[in-house]
Amino acid sequence: MKRISILLSFTFLFCFSCYTIKAQDLHFTNNFIVPTFFNPAQTGAFAGNLRGSMLYRDQWRSFAPNPFQQAVIAFDSPIVFGLSKQHWVGVGATLFYDKAGAPGQTWSGFYPSVSYHVSFDKKFKNVITLGVQYGFANRGYNTDGWVSEDEVLGISSTSPDRQFIMGTGNNGEDFSAGYSDLNVGLLFKSTIDKYSKFEIGAAMMHVLNPSFNFSNGGRANEIGSRINVHTKYRRATGSKMIWEPAIYYSSMPGASIIQVQLRNQYRLKKKGDWSIISGLGFRVGDAAQLLAGAQYKDWVVALSYDYGVSELASEGIASAYELGVQKLFVFNKKPKVKPIIFCPRL
Questions:
Q1: By percentage, how much of the chain surpasses pLDDT 70?
Q2: Residue 11 falls inside a structural domain
Q3: 89: helix, coil or strand?
Q4: Structure confidence by residue, pLDDT tens digits, 175-231
Q5: Phi and psi angles of residue 150, each rounded to the nearest 5 degrees, phi first
Q6: 314, 257, 247, 306: which is closest to 285 by C-alpha?
Q7: Which is nearest to 185 in space by CA: 42, 66, 306, 48?
Q8: Residue 188 domain-assigned?
Q9: Predicted local confidence at residue 12, as pLDDT
Q10: DSSP character at residue 45
Q11: Are 248 and 199 in contact (CB under 8 A)?
Q12: Whole-angstrom distance, CA of residue 269 vs CA of residue 271
């Protein structure tokens, strides 16, 4: 365990030392629903055959005529082979879509991922994982109905902003640009005892600092690296009750996020299939979070509401809603038994 701790500390410090802030990125409240979106090392890091996840976020609908809408769909699976019986490979894919603002700004991407898991014991109680994502993304916007800041202020109807956005001057023109991207991550999971589990992970997103340039001749836009660090502790305090405190930190261009949450899972019957999920969270300087949901067997549904506490909250525009669904598939193969024919003379 001491060697593991030293290795994790060195690797996380290396990630921080390489990090520079360059650009804005997406964030969600229910991170646990789509773990591969925040850390590629989460690929295949579960007990089962296949995991499917979906998360949708709607923000500022009460204020903006074109609210911020974000969605993620992810699939991943552990493949049972490696250099030894205590190793395995995980594979998966994460797709996301983001639409924001009056110009119809969009951002979408497809990120296949692969991970390698190493257990330090035969019972798989302590596992460290390295994950890699390499995919392609596209950013764009539509100028239909776009109004420049100068026009809003009444300064000019032919501002440089309009000339830049409109390009050839035809309203409704689309601009888009694509780029390739690389994300890497580390994850450590530990089963402390039969009542509690612990995990900690870190990921470096946009490692290659990709850039894109729209077709209207604008300057190149660089996407800076982003660091995500997350940890959680899961503890059963009885046959029906489970508590899960979690901390998530993310640093990105021009901003950083610290999110603290406490979730509770209560099983309705001691050996039943239904559980109720509730909890509270706080994103420092941004929003208080109300968490809710339910679990039925291998299905998890998560709901959340963000109530803004920043300067935007006074204008009533900082609220956000999320709906997430996750399904774990376990395929139990029936053993093939060769028929035995008994001799009637025996």
A1: 72
A2: yes
A3: strand
A4: 778 899 999 999 999 999 999 999 999 999 999 888 877 655 556 778 888 999 999
A5: -65, -35
A6: 257
A7: 42
A8: yes
A9: 37
A10: -
A11: no
A12: 5
Domain assignment present for residue 346? The answer is no
- What is the C-alpha separation between 246 and 231, in angstroms, rounded? 6
Quickly list H helices, 139-198: 149-153, 160-166
Which amino acid appears at position 242 of this protein? Answer: I
Q: Which amino acid is at 243?
A: W
| pTM, full prediction | 0.80
3-state DSSP helix/strand/coil % of the chain, to nearest 5: 10, 50, 35
Q: Is the dihedral of CA 128, 83, 45, 70 positive or negative?
A: positive
CATH number at residue 242: 2.40.160.40
Helix (H/G/I), strand (E/B), else coil: 160 = helix
86 is a domain residue: yes
User: What's the confidence (pLDDT) of residue 154?
Assistant: 54
Q: Which domain holds residue 76?
A: 2-143+177-213+225-329
As for how many domains the chain has, the answer is 1
Residues making up the chain, counted from first to last: 346
pLDDT for res 224: 83
What the block records as the tokens of 277 is 């999920």
The partner residues of 13 in beta bridges, in order of sequence, read none
